[in-house]
Write a structure and sequence with these properties.
Length: 149
Amino acid sequence: MTLFGIDWSLGALWLVAALALAIAELIAPGFFMIFIAAGAALTGFVVLAIPGLSWIAQALLFAAFSAAAVAIGLRWYHRDRLAEPSHGLNDRTAKLIGKTVEVCEAIVAGEGRVKVGDGTWNATGPDAPAGALVRITGATGSVLSVELA
């Protein structure tokens, strides 16, 4: 096949398509176009190795390689998310657990307020007078659970 005065094999065209898909992934990041590019690249290598493949066989190879690459990619992304421990990023209350804070409004009948940094939070726990030190043991929404320190 001659294109722009260059004699291209079909395998080379598949590799150019793979490169174009990889560049598209860089321009508009998603998570699947790179796997489609991998399918096109594998198809290109097969077509270079076996030059007489029909266009139907090439399309089927591309579909199979792309589907396999996407399936592997999804499994890989899913595994990484499960293996990654939560560091409390965007979970402010999780970072507070274990800290000792001061009661600013007495905890009476299990409810009161504690001073955390420069703000105050609702708290539940054993009765404690204002000024007492308590340790944060957990949180439900924005209500901290505390125990006497």
